[in-house]
Specification:
By secondary structure, the chain is an alpha/beta fold. The protein has a single domain, classed as Metallo-beta-lactamase, Chain A (4-Layer Sandwich), CATH 3.60.15. It contains six helices and 13 strands. α4 packs across α5.
Length: 227
């Protein structure tokens, strides 16, 4: 069975189609992380990075050193920065930008628009499809109307949305996002309560989602769910 585990903040561990994946791998500086970096020693297949802020790019470079067979999926410009700054071989990258699906060893990947900021490329969300499941991780973003298109195009089963409020959507805005994305299964809140600046009550998100006729699933850091 495909599985998702929230590692706190925006870091998400996935096991889909036999691939071990981490999205936005901030581990060492993540006070909510239930694992240490050595948990990922030589067992990752794919690292997905939505943008270059430190709490999302995180430990990507060190994880690549620990996982010589792993690939990185991010925007081309962010990959170029990593290649030039940290001497990561271009063969380690899956070049991409916002668009359609890209096939990678039994799974499909796509980058989506996100409304946020970054230094070395535009910020993105990511869609991951495998084992008959489609998951949308929004990265860091504010609310934007094109989420309707993401819902229509990719038809996600699960959506992971930031709710911390100061740098991203808050619970009410994320509830509106769920209505636009129309997940078939659950909406899962991320990017909150890591630090006081993004402290919110996830029950507010649950209420916003429920009153719109959808289901929310609040995970504790380290908690897994079968997809």
């Amino acid at each position: 069975m495909p599985q998702l585990r929230w590692l706190g903040h925006a870091a998400v561990e996935l096991n889909i189609s036999g691939k071990h994946i981490i999205v936005d791998p901030m581990i060492k500086d993540n006070p909510l992380s239930p694992v240490r970096l050595n948990y990922f020693d030589n067992n990752l297949d794919l690292i997905v990075v939505t943008h270059d802020h430190y709490d999302h790019l995180g430990d990507t470079v060190e994880l690549m050193k620990m996982n010589p067979k792993a690939k990185i999926f991010a925007t081309y410009d962010l990959e170029a920065y990593l290649a030039n700054e940290f001497k990561i071989d271009w063969e380690k990258f899956i070049p991409a930008n916002v668009g359609g699906y890209i096939s990678f060893d039994g799974i499909k990947l796509a980058l989506t628009k996100a409304v946020h900021s970054s230094e070395h490329s535009d910020p993105t969300g990511v869609v991951i499809n495998g084992d008959g499941v489609t998951l949308y991780h929004a990265g860091d973003t504010g609310l934007f109307e094109d989420m309707k298109l993401i819902g229509e195009l990719f038809k996600p089963d699960y959506v992971l949305l930031p709710i911390g409020g100061r740098f991203t959507m808050d619970p009410q805005q994320a509830g509106i996002a769920v209505e636009m994305l129309r997940p078939k299964r659950y909406a899962i809140p991320i990017h909150y309560n890591t630090w006081d600046l993004i402290k919110v009550n996830p029950d507010e998100f649950v209420q916003e989602v429920s009153k719109r006729g959808y289901k929310a699933l609040v995970l504790q850091p380290g908690q897994s769910v079968e997809l």
